[in-house]
Hints:
The complex is a heterodimer of chains A (236) and B (310).
Chain A: H1 3-20, H2 22-42, H3 50-84, H4 86-91, H5 97-130, H6 139-166, H7 169-188, H8 190-196, H9 202-222, H10 228-233
Helix pairs in contact in A: 1-5, 2-3, 2-5, 3-5, 3-6, 3-7, 3-8, 5-6, 6-9
Chain B: E1 2-9, E2 20-27, E3 32-36, H1 43-50, E4 58-63, E5 78-81, H2 93-103, H3 110-119, H4 135-146, E6 153-157, H5 165-181, E7 185-190, H6 193-199, E8 202-207, E9 210-216, H7 217-223, E10 228-233, H8 236-249, E11 254-258, E12 261-265, H9 271-280, E13 285-289, H10 295-309
Parallel strand pairs in B: 3-7, 3-8, 5-6, 6-7
Antiparallel strand pairs in B: 1-2, 1-4, 8-9, 10-12, 10-13, 11-12
Helix pairs in contact in B: 2-3, 4-5
Amino acid sequence: MSAFExxxxxxxxxxxxxVTNKGxxxxxxxFATWFSIMAGLGVADERxxxxxQLNNSLFYMGALIGLFVGYIYSGQTYLREKQSGIVExxxxxxxxxxxxxxxxxxxxxxxxxxxALLAAAGITLIAGQRLPQFIIPSITVxxxxxxxxxxxxxxxxxxxxxxxxxxxxxxNMIVNMLTxxxxxxxxxxxxxxxxxxxxxxWTAVGALAGASLALLAxxxxxxxxxxxxxxxxxxx
Amino acid sequence: xxxxxxxxKSFGGSGSPPVLDGITLNIEAGEVFGYLGPNGAGKTxxxxxxxxxxxxxxxxxxxxxxxxxxxxxxxSRIGVLMxxxxxxxxxxxxxxxxxxxxxxxxRDPRAKIERLLGFVGLxxxxxxxxxTFSTGMRRKLGLxxxxxxxxxxxxxxxxxxxLDPEAQLMVRELLQELAEARKITxxxxxxxxxxxxxxxxxxxxxxxxxxxxxxxxxxxxQGAAAPRLEVRLSDERDAARAAELxxxxxxxxxxxxTGATLTLSGNGSAxxxxxxxxxxxxxxxEEVLRPAKSLEDVYFEIVRDEAVSA
Lengths: 236, 310
């Protein structure tokens, strides 16, 4: 059986679990909806044009919502299975560690990205109600949302999954707290960043795409450090 | 099938005491092998090393002739039931089995899963979430999960842990059927002596990281200590006289008297000679017994001896 097939089976299981678990699905939908309403209501013709604000907002919030939802789901995917000991049984299956890790990352990244895209659509619709006319996001933002954000989200989720598999429970708690602080700090800065000046250019999109690809490459390389022994020894 | 030579595993620095210390095991195909030991003896660590989840600090381990930590291929020939059953509580019984069947490469496992759910008596619970299951039901489903890919070798870590007597019996019957009908080689970690005695053809007793005994149960029961003989005489006076007589004549037997019963142990307690002497002296014998040691006796002799010598 190929590694790709294993990734597909694991990803499909994780997606199904996120979609069918009411609590889990709701938490992602709630945060995506909440942030999209807040961001959409914030778009207005003030310091910069409403169009520029919308593009800024989609660029910034799209990635941030994907990251936030990915963070919530990855905890339920990697960490929960580690805490409950299920991961030990999975490690005994004829599946490579990389397939297990990446399969879960794909399973988390797909619903997280879909929610980020829906949130972007929500921001656009709400902003359209507030501005004098309905504005369609620029082509750079559309490219950003459909290509760069998925790469960014899967790289970030894979990195979070790597940390959750590698670290002990206490270290994971500390990392979780730091991640939450980072995410909320980034959210708190939204208005400051979005309303100051138009910054969504091909250069910005290219820079974030490059950074996401670099993060993906680094995370992939870090995957070489994963070992069954390390995971088993850090199970609670 | 399983070969471990001088297997040693330490966690932490070089000064830390080994969790496993020089374990040597050889388990043949078709055996049901019981691995006994108190909590913390190193049983789960042994299973983890044999499964390739941990690497030995010293010594070699081979399963199906390969080093388990370096071979993903042999994992498809092995089934595992760890102490937590390895089931996802958010998924139904059927979904759990289907997920594992697909990970092990089964293309269309539906019929197989239905059969297994029937085998473990959970066919009416197929669509219920595992989170609603009792410990016994989880254990049975975990067993079905462990054999969904028809493994040649099955590792069971405390299969009856946390189960009530009825559930223990059910799990034991399932394991008996697996071992007898399907000829699966089984490695059972347990501290349930009764379970091991009923299921296993051979056992090893692990204590403080070392194997203290490794043989068939019958051989261990026979050879664990010097033979014992119980002689019940007609009354206490005869028993006192018999003790006096045997003490004077027997060279190495230890004699203890409780009421009308004498207990002789060690050399010099051979039944025919003892009976002949007593009859010759005119003493009336009511009963002569050669009580067999239970596995429990053997186990506690080994564990306590080691505790004393440590």
